[in-house]
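Q: Give me the 3D complex with guanosine-5'-diphosphate.
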Amino acid sequence: SLSIGIVGLPNVGKSTLFNALTKNDALAANYPFATIEPNVGVVGVPDQRLTVLAELFDSQKIIPATMEFLDIAGIVKGASEGQGLGNKFLANIRETNAICQVIRAFEDPDVTHVDGDVAPSRDIETINTELILADLQTIEKALPRLDKEARTKKDKEKLAVVDAVNAAQKLLDGGVTLFAGAEAAGIDLTLLRELHLLTAKPFLYVFNLDESELTDEALRARLRDLVAPAEAIFLDAKIEAELIELPDDEALELLQGMGQDESGLSQLVRVGFDTLGLQTYLTAGPKESRAWTIRKGATAPEAAGVIHTDFQRGFIKAEIVSFDDLTTAGSMAAARTAGKVRMEGKDYVMQDGDVVEFRFNV
Ligand code: GDP
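A: Here is the predicted complex, encoded as structure tokens.
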């Protein structure tokens, strides 16, 4: 499955957050395998719709979509030159599909900051600089070979790759990540795929705030601006760690007391899933109500293939009703009577929250 790497300077709350994520009953209860390795956690993607479906269909169990988080320690200034856990850090992050930067905004005299004081924008720059330098090294190594290949073979596609790599180098040299700047610079990231560049991965940001800052809209807006177009999530990691110890109703009460209606962990998983370019469709029956993971833009046969490759191969059609139409109607039979259940063919592009039954030949 696709994974998100959690990175950040030391002492910003990464481990606190990661542990809360992977020990969280609500997110991880169904997954005894939740911790594959000490630094890899599988979490369920929170989805209220599954609870509703399970009631409607009297399902025995609920199976949410899942995703992986990796706790990647070791970024410090100089990581790209092998400082700290430099090389290991870079190798680990290369394997992930998106990068979640945890940025410290909380003040605490008992928790030292590696660079002296709490300064979110400087820390973001420190991390981005290391990722950019690592990408520039990758490019410097690869460019002569790519260039030579393209020229000797007069290969148009390879020449386009070389152009894209040169443009990327220029962007990175100016201190801009590919994620933030490639589109405006007209760089087609698919041409850079073979280089596995770190800053071409989607980014998202978690700002670890003081409890009192959680409702500070001006601060949130300022921090959000720092990282746009990436998504920003605001939470207090220490409180998240406390929330997971509480029964659901008490946790919600505590959250609402702080002006929040959803835990930071739950937001992180939802936004992370979206950042990975993923969405879900749903199936429901007496056995289970379940969310299945597909990439955005997947067609009906591709979606069927996630359940079983035979479903994709033998795909005939999909019987689909949107979650909203189904719940408004109150039952599958009522939705059918109301004309809300559609038969879709092999070109249908799946929509988030489609409730589906596939018809196929075996
Ligand atoms: P990591 O090095 O980034 O993994 O950071 P840790 O999760 O180990 O946290 C470092 C220290 O900061 C620990 O003592 C945590 O209890 C503390 N800490 C983490 N998050 C918060 C927070 O939101 N507020 C405060 N005051 N302390 C925190």
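A quick observation: Residues 8, 10-16, 106, 108, 111, 208, 236-238 surround guanosine-5'-diphosphate (CB under 6 Å).
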